[in-house]
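Our platform keeps sequence and structure together, in a single record for each protein. Such a record has a labelled line for the sequence and another for the backbone structure tokens. This encoding replaces a full spatial description with a residue-level series of whole-number codes. Below, we set out a record of this kind in full and without editing:
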Amino acid sequence: MDFLRSCNLDDLPEQQTRTAHLIDANPDFEFSLGFDACCTCGKEVGTAESPAIPCRNCKRVNYCSDACRQQDANVPIVSDSLEEENRDTAMGHSAIICSLLRLCEDDEAVENGEEQSLEQHKVEAARNRIESEKHSYQATLANVLLGETTCYSETLRACSKAGKLILHIIGASLDGELWGDSEKDRAAKAYADALSDLAETCRNETIELYFLGPECPSEVYQQTVSMQSSGGESTTTGTLRLFAIKGLYSADLLKQHDIPKADIVVFFNPGFTVPDYDWKETLNSIENGTPFLSTTNTELEGIADCQYLLDLDRIESIPPGLAQMFDLYSEMDEDGEPNQLSSFFSENPFCGNRVRQNGTMANDVFVKNRWILGGIIGSFDSARGSTATQPAKKIRAVEANMKSGNPALI
């Protein structure tokens, strides 16, 4: 992201709220740190007896006293870059976090039509960040599938012969993947634009895109859009047929609406491990051998989602870096290099550049769709055993986080 590059940072500092001392003292702690509880000591704030004292700059993190506010802003001094890289301790309300949260404030003001107090250049920057987040769904879907990834290549070759590609976006919502009721037609056009190269490369005359989830529009939404070549001449490369259907993904829902079998299934920020959701029926209704793509907002969520799929026996192989973490077999050759990997986990070079604040830990930030996990739905081959492997090299798509190299940022 451009802001991180300007701060000479490669990574987004995702989990920075200091919680260890509070959890040790009270494992059942339920307050939201920095919101209704002091971000330093955990004392309840926002009451007549204990008014909230916010950060003076971003005004998005609350404390019970000036002393706690100052303590949270004190960042430990590190002696060298190696020590900083290996440090696991949360940094609290550092200058970087404060700056990122000020951007969150700008974005929300513009999104809510309350930008009158902002300078024009800040308004334009916020609009660009908001738009980049919207387009991250289309950019991620099109570019990851079009990339040279083994788990999709065989399926795409088969679909090329058939002339049709069918994608199921599972757990979709009107306000997320479809940008809201007033913009769903523009979102459909954006999907057609993004998928045009995939249609042309794979010779798919038709791409059918099914958005399926309990937060989809109450009435079935359907749109047909021509996909145009992205080259110099504007020629039609195929047709996108988009459907949005409300309901929990299951065999019954597919049968009820006569939805064809998916060639590839996609999950945008599914929250597999969120206690309020139950994904078992949905995952069991997906045919074994179906490739999948899933995104998460943070690295920890991506790791947890992979572990969840493994626990349910719904992922055929584990990405090398995670396989080592889980002490499982990994698809690596003798030199420790990936060999035709059928699963992957990495940062997503096609995410947007809008940073959001976590709703329960005020110093934690995230970017939607920032991490991607892909593989094949099916049973893990435990007969392969456990093999010591080198971790996969993290994909650092610095150039892809510039507008010139990332359609999500345009």
Notes: Residues 120-146 form the longest helix (27 residues). DSSP finds twelve helices and twelve strands in the chain. The CA atoms of residues 110 and 124 lie 9 Å apart. Residues 383-410 have pLDDT under 50 and may be disordered.
